[in-house]
Amino acid sequence: MAKEIAFQGKLKSVTVPDLLTFIGMIKKSGVLTVESQNITRKLYWEKGELVFANSTHPDESLGSFLVRHGKITQEQNMKSGMLVEPGKRQGKILVQMGILTPKQLWWAVKNQVLEIVYGIFSLSEGVFYFEEKEEATEEKIKLSTTTTNIIMEGIRRLDEWPRIKELIPDDTVVPTPVPPEFRDNQVKFQEGEIEIMNLVDGKRNIRDIVHVSSLEEFETLRILMSLLLARYIYIPGSVVSQEEDIEDVNAIEALIEKYNRIFGELWNALGEKISPKERQNLFDDIKNQVNEPVLEGPLFDARGHLPGTVLMANVADFPQDKRLKILSSALDNLLSFLLFEASKHLDSVQKDTIYKLVEKK
After folding, report:
1. 3-class DSSP state for residue 85?
2. pLDDT surpassing 50 at residue 243
3. In this predicted structure, what is the pLDDT of residue 136?
4. What's the mean pLDDT in 277-286?
5. Which of 296, 269, 247 is nearest to 358 (CA)?
6. Which residues contact 208 (CB under 8 A, 6 or more apart)?
7. Element spanning 342, H or E
8. Dist CA 127 CA 36 (whole Å)
């Protein structure tokens, strides 16, 4: 029986988001077949909403999805796969074998379908055709999201995948936690981020973490990317190794401590000459006048010190080989302005003490 094709075309002439949006807008029921690089993916629609998807790509099968997420072993995948026959699908077999619960199967099928759909977004070569049918498939699932949301998520993933691949080029690399003393411990993590952070132990590789994570693969990788960028974890041998990071952090911390010691002495000396409020205003006003990007945010505390953690976070935005120089220049500029204004209030003995301390820096 010949296929009744409602429309067809080539992927190089229309984007996947536009194609899916069009089907959603016309609220058709049927099957969208996408063929690219000898792989066929079928998306099943009911009145403009996605209800199912399947793929001939081995990595996009239900069994491979379950293995990838650590829900079954490769041996269980092979054994259950051998029992598949018409009318008896692998998921049902796994439940009958007691390997999966019905709830786990529902979760797996839903997320496998979404991964198949998201996988289409990166395609730029191939053909597609849409067959209009009143009953596209008997295998309908509730995706817990609308087609519009799926399209938006697909676009987001398309934007983020290159950055993820840049930072995590291989799923065999082993991410390692950065020691607490070398990271910003003020960051508040969400539940999923806490889970992934706890899975990074310096022993599991990326593939292992994806397997044991309760989150789906893309979300796990996205969080790992965020943790890498936030310097909560690192990959040994990457562009910026941990040894370089520690050396960089130590030098910057020493620089901040040195200047804070001078600021503190100046603060104490001024405390003998002007009121606490006048002193606080003098320090804060000068810091704001200096207008150095790396000094943004922190104000002087009750000791006359600038918060080191905030300065560390500010300077992290700059290239590693330039951080120390940029911060040193900003602090030196700030100190010069402070000395000029403070000297109007200090006596000769106080000035001499402060200037000797400055000379030693």
Report:
1. strand
2. no
3. 62
4. 90
5. 269
6. none
7. helix 320-342
8. 7
H, E, C per residue of 99-117: CCCHHHHHHHHHHHHHHHH
For residue 356, count other CB atoms closer than 10 A to its CB: 10
- Top-confidence residue, 319 or 325: 325
Residue 90 tokens read as 């692998």
The residues spanned by each domain of the chain are 5-153, 168-234, 242-360
Run of H or E including 90 = helix 90-96
Q: Are 133 and 3 in contact (CB under 8 A)?
A: no
**Rounded-to-integer distance, Cα 109 and Cα 140, Å:** 10
* pLDDT at residue 247 in the model: 45
The conformation of residue 178, written as its DSSP 8-state character, comes to: P
Arithmetic mean of pLDDT over the chain: 85
CA–CA distance, 8 with 131 (Å, rounded to integer): 9
The counts of H helices and E strands in the chain are 14, 7
186 vs 238, which has greater pLDDT? 186
- Read off the pLDDT band of 274 (50, 70, 90): very high
